[in-house]
Amino acid sequence: MLLQTDDQTMEDLRLFARREQPGIYDIYNNTFTRGGEAVLEEMFRNPLSDREQIIARSSVIAAFAKLGTTFPFRPVLLDNIEKYLSQSAQHRDGQRGTLGEKEIAAGVMAAIELLHAVRDFVEKGDAVKVEGLSQQRKNMTLLLQDEGLQPVFNEKPGAKLSYAAITAYDILVRVRERKKFIDVLHFIYLVDVYISVATMANKHQFIFPVVHTGPGRVINVQGVFHPALKAPIGNDIRMDGQRSVVFLTGANMAGKSTFLRSLSIAVYIAHMGFPVAAKAMEFSIMDGLYTTINLPDNLGIGASHFYAEVLRVKRIAVELNAGRSIFVVFDELFRGTNVKDAHEGTVEITRAFARKSNSLFIISSHIVEAANTLKQQPTIGFYYLPTRMNGNTPEYTYTLQEGVTDDRHGMIIIRNENILDILAAGKKNG
C-alpha cells in the first residue's frame, strides 16, 4: 500500500532538484549504480502506508547502518555488465548485436565476476547479519544455485577464456539466462539503496523513526530539523487525538515555512522507512500526506490564487469525507483573499478540521485574531515562532514555543531598508 500524496506536496517539500538546487533526494542519494539511483527515486515517489513494509525496510537500513557496511561490488563491474546486457545477443534479422569482440569478452568476464561476488555477499558477507534481508538472501541463493548458472561458477573470476568459451558464455548470459542476470542486478540495486541510505544516516546522524502501535493517530518528534540546512535548529512537537490541529503563528521570516517543511519532510520520509533529520520520532501510519506551502495560481483554468486555495481545501475535504487518515499542512491559509474573508475562512475550516480526529493538521496564519475564537476548541493547540528586537533589528530564534504571538515587524523591516526615504528622495528629484 502506498501513501497518498501529489505533485504539489512533492514540490512544496522540494524532494527533487529544481533550477540547479539540490533536493532532499540528493541528500539521501549516495548510490554507486544507475539502477540504484532509479530504485531510490521510485521509493521517493512512492512512500508507503503499510506498517509491515515500512518496518521491514527500516530494519534492513538500520542493520546496515549499525554494521557500517560499504558497497561490496565494484561500480566499474556493474557499468560493464549493464552496458553488456543492454545489447541483445541478436537482432531480429538474425545478425549479431552492435557489441564488438572485446566488449563481449569484457561483458562475459564481468558477468562471471559479478555472480561470484553476489554469492560471497549472500553467503558470507554482511547480508548474512541482516535479519530483514533473509528472504531476499534465500531467493538470491536459490537463483544462484539454478542449474543453468552452474557453468559460471566453474570459472574463476579474471581467468582467461578461449574464444569458444566466451561465445558460449555470451549466449548463456544474454540469451538463455538473461532474466536471471537481470534479477541479480535488481537485487544489487536494492542493496545499493539500503547501504547508501545507511551510510547517509551515519554521516548526518539521522535517526530511525518508531512506528506508533497504539490507538489513535500520533506524531511525536524531538529535535526535528530541515536536512538541507548547514546549522539547523531542532524543534519538538507532539500531535495526537487530544491535539489533532496545530495553529501556528509568527512574523515574516520567523521560520514558519521552514518548520512546516522540516516536519512534513520527516513525516514523508518516515513513511518511506528511511531515517529522518531529528533526535527522536514516533509516528502513526497515515493514508495520505498533503501540504500547501507554495501554491501557484492555476492559470490553465483561469484560477486566482484564492480559488486555487479553495480547490486545494476541497481536495482535502473529499479525502477526509472518504474516511482516510491524512496529515495536512496549510501555510498561510487563504492568503490570496482579503483579511476579512481570510479570517472567517481560516476559523471555519480550522474548526471543521478539528472535528476530524482521525487526521492531523497544521495551519499557519498571520491572522492571529483567529486564535481568540479557535481557543474555544479543545483539540487545537497553539504554537508560535518568536521574534526578539535588538533595537530596531528583529532577531529570530527559530525555536517553537507554545502560545500565540502578535509579532508584526513588516514596517520595521521596510524602514530598515530605507524604502520610504528612497521613494521620498525620488519624488523630490522628479
Keywords:
430 residues, alpha/beta, MutS, DNA mismatch repair protein, Chain A, domain 3, Rossmann fold, 2 domains, six-stranded mixed beta sheet, four-stranded mixed beta sheet, 16 helices, 13% strand, ATP-binding, DNA mismatch repair protein
Structure explained in plain terms:
- The chain is α/β, with parallel strands linked by helices and 430 residues long.
- The chain has two domains: 174 residues, Orthogonal Bundle (MutS, DNA mismatch repair protein, Chain A, domain 3), CATH 1.10.1420; 220 residues, 3-Layer(aba) Sandwich (Rossmann fold).
- The protein is built from 16 helices and twelve strands.
- Strands 6-7-8-4-9-12 form a six-stranded mixed beta sheet, sandwiched between helices. Strands 1-5-2-3 form a four-stranded mixed beta sheet, covered by helices on one side.
- Helix 13 links the parallel strand 7 and strand 8.
- Helix 4 crosses helix 10.
- It is elongated and about 85 Å long.
- 38% of the residues are buried.
Number of spatially distinct domains: 2
Low-pLDDT stretches are: 91-95
CATH class of the largest domain: Alpha Beta
- The fraction of residues assigned to DSSP E strands is 5-15%
Shape, principal axes of CA atoms: elongated
Proportion of helical residues: 40-55%
If strands are numbered along the chain, what order do they take across the biggest sheet?
6-7-8-4-9-12
Number of helices, where a helix is a run of at least 4 consecutive DSSP H or I residues: 16
CATH-scheme architecture of the largest domain:
3-Layer(aba) Sandwich
Q: Which sequence of SSEs, written as H and E, runs from N to C?
A: HHHHHHHHHHEEEEHEEHEHEHEEEEHH
- Main structural class: alpha/beta
In angstroms, what is the radius of gyration? Answer: 28 Å
Q: Average pLDDT value?
A: 90
How can the largest sheet be summarized? 6 strands, mixed
Counted beta strands: 12
The CATH superfamily of the largest domain is P-loop containing nucleotide triphosphate hydrolases
Span between termini: 66 Å
According to CATH, the fold-level topology of the largest domain is Rossmann fold
